[in-house]
Design goal:
globular; 4-stranded antiparallel β-sheet; mainly beta; 140 residues; 1 helix
Length: 140
């Protein structure tokens, strides 16, 4: 009886740790697309350039091992605007060309990018999935 209880506990512990997806991406050309989540956005500091509220630290780090001819980032809800930062460059998500927030600027140089997912309102938070994919999003 004790052995069964111990085995059950070990299995539950192992499964509990696998519920949290890795928030960081390391991508090589030819990966296709990678979706991770759910995560929770945070609206702490206003960014008037991107027109939303963002956390003070990035939730994701995306490392591109090489240059990409076309790449885009997307969240699965309109309540999760985001920005991608590399050095002094900032790309703000928009919904002008697609129904969901997307950043797509064609070619991307290899390097490390910080991704901040926020809220349209101060203090707002919503669950989201983040997708990084090669090519342009549908409709672009």
């Amino acid at each position: 009886m004790r052995t069964i209880t111990l085995v059950s506990f070990v299995l539950l512990t192992a499964c509990a740790g696998s519920d949290e997806p890795d928030p960081d991406f390391t991508l090589d050309p030819g990966f296709g697309d990678d979706t991770r989540g759910p995560f929770s956005s945070a609206g702490e500091v206003e960014d008037t350039t991107c027109g939303a509220w963002f956390p003070t630290t990035a939730q994701h780090q995306v490392t591109l091992t090489e240059n990409f001819l076309a790449l885009h980032f997307m969240t699965d809800t309109v309540d999760a605007p985001f920005k991608v930062i590399e050095g002094n460059n900032t790309w703000c998500s928009d919904t002008d060309s697609t129904p969901l927030p997307v950043v797509s600027s064609g070619a991307w140089s290899g390097g490390t990018f910080a991704v901040y997912v926020g809220s349209p309102t101060e203090g707002g938070s919503t669950p989201y999935d983040l997708t990084v994919a090669e090519g342009l999003p549908d409709g672009m």
